[in-house]
UniProtKB/TrEMBL annotation, chain A:
Family: Belongs to the GatC family.
InterPro entries, alphabetized: Asp/Glu-ADT_sf_sub_c, GatC
Catalytic reaction annotation: L-glutamyl-tRNA(Gln) + L-glutamine + ATP + H2O = L-glutaminyl-tRNA(Gln) + L-glutamate + ADP + phosphate + H(+); L-aspartyl-tRNA(Asn) + L-glutamine + ATP + H2O = L-asparaginyl-tRNA(Asn) + L-glutamate + ADP + phosphate + 2 H(+)
UniProtKB keywords: ATP-binding, Ligase, Nucleotide-binding, Protein biosynthesis
Top-level taxon in the UniProt lineage: Bacteria
Record flagged with keyword Nucleotide-binding: yes
Primary gene name: gatC
Name of the protein: Aspartyl/glutamyl-tRNA(Asn/Gln) amidotransferase subunit C
Quaternary structure and interacting proteins, as annotated: Heterotrimer of A, B and C subunits.
Annotated HAMAP family: GatC
Signal peptide extent: none
Class of the enzyme per the UniProt entry, highest EC level: ligase
EC number: 6.3.5.-
TrEMBL record, chain B:
Protein name (database record): Glutamyl-tRNA(Gln) amidotransferase subunit A
Source organism, top-level taxon: Bacteria
Keyword Metal-binding attached: no
Family of this protein: Belongs to the amidase family. GatA subfamily.
Amino acid sequence: MSTISRDEVARVAALARIDLRPEEVDRLAGELDVIVESIARVSEVATPDVPATSHPLPMTNVFREDVPVPALPVADVLASAPDAQDGRFAVPQILGEE
Amino acid sequence: MTDLTRLSACQLSETLASGEASSVEATRAHLDRIAAVDGDVHAFLHVSADDALATAADVDARRANGEVLHPLAGVPIAVKDVVVTKGMPSTAGSKILEGWIPPYDATLVERLRAAGLPILGKTNMDEFAMGSSTEHSAYGNSHNPWDLERIPGGSGGGSAAAVAAFEAPLAIGTDTGGSIRQPGAVTGTVGVKPTYGGVSRYGLIALASSLDQAGPVTRTVLDSALLHELIGGHDPRDSTSIPEPLPPLVEAARQGALGDLSGLRVGVVTQLQGEGYQPGVLARFHESLELLTKAGAEVVEVSCPHFEYALAAYYLILPAEASSNLAKFDGMRFGLRVEPEDGPVTAERVMAATRGAGFGDEVKRRIILGTYALSAGYYDAYYGSAQKVRTLIQRDFADAFAQADVLVSPTAPTTAFKLGEKLDDPLAMYLNDVATIPANLAGVPGISVPSGLSDDGLPAGFQILAPAKADDRLYRVGAALEAALESTWGGPLLDRAPTLG
């Protein structure tokens, strides 16, 4: 019995922008339990007094010299784009109908 | 004449420098070998013969003009397909990047090109480096040269198989949870995960940014040191890159090969042996320990009690970071674009259709896991708790390195399993990485050195871990072990691999 429902999987898939077939939603609903097991496991030792480590070697405020360098040629960048027009990426409709 | 494909990179470098052979001849020999055996091994997704031969010819011409060249100039190399190469396909093993030609080179590729290493091609891998067997590649799995029915490890199984099959003397891998070291162990090759930040990640297609690290895949410890020194060091384009020079790695490897380890303390990690480890793998591990003792090292047992939580923490951190990193594959600027079968063709619907069609099962699974773990209300409990385990693991390492100069374990609990055997059991697949993951969580460097053949006749690996930024210790101890083992074997382990083709 899975603790994460089909509806929950569908909701998360929509957040992740992935179209899933119904059989994929079924399968993933079962497999997501592993994350619940993992969280139970880490919770045994992840107590409030332990600080979190986000990065293995602590580094803050990494700066480099502010020197202008040439950007990649636009033609090179657009050469592998799915669609391009007037030196720009061409994408499908991004706003709803007014 | 010598078979140029059987030489180590160091030997080949000397052969080229002495004029005994040209880089064009060496590169042709490897391209011929690829043509002869890669139908069986399937280590390569793309072979860049023209590019490699042009580089080789250029190096030969420069050498003839008396130019001072890098020691590895003219020595061919294979590059894992997750590293971007200008003008050469870079798919990361995914259909979503099929046909994409990157407009730039990764920093480490720039360094390879500047030093004159002909790039033979791009090696196979689990899609976006998610896996331990190459079975999650969208282009079919690679095969272990020791037994073609078995996995070559993963995710960098293509790089390890290419080197083990003498298709390339050198290769580049990336290691997020063991993807360089575990393939090294199961193919009888050497693999190094440098200290986090030790090799630039600029131009690596990111999986989990706080864990990813590129490194060398070779047949000898010295070859890894030579390659590591070439690709390592600070890169202003990677803000996580360590802004200090590397320790002397080649020197450490040469010194280690002399075989004197007196004064060195070797810590055996209690938690990385025993249950779940194959008896033959453990037997080879203990024999290697004895050789280190004979070389003068003192062996102590160290406990790292939080390592048993590493897998669970990794299972939360990796999908969370992957779901964020893979958001860029949306069909808008590069790669695949798929329109929805029906309904309006909006950008948002095109993104979902593209990602649904372009990602494989394992990638979808991990993105969904990660998106769930990061979604509103769960972040602190999931990702935050896993990050606390990282702190505990770092503390375990700090305590252990107070008692020992290096830590050791078997690299992987078992030898190579059969293709298909664990494909339907993701948890069993992850257990392969139980000994390699702690190093990624803590950012410390690790090497896998072949330790011999297990009872099933397949290679096992010996892992050495060192404190952050002390990568030189890996090479000193690794080279000493390699020299001692090869003198008991009477030659390199790969001499015993079956003949291919």
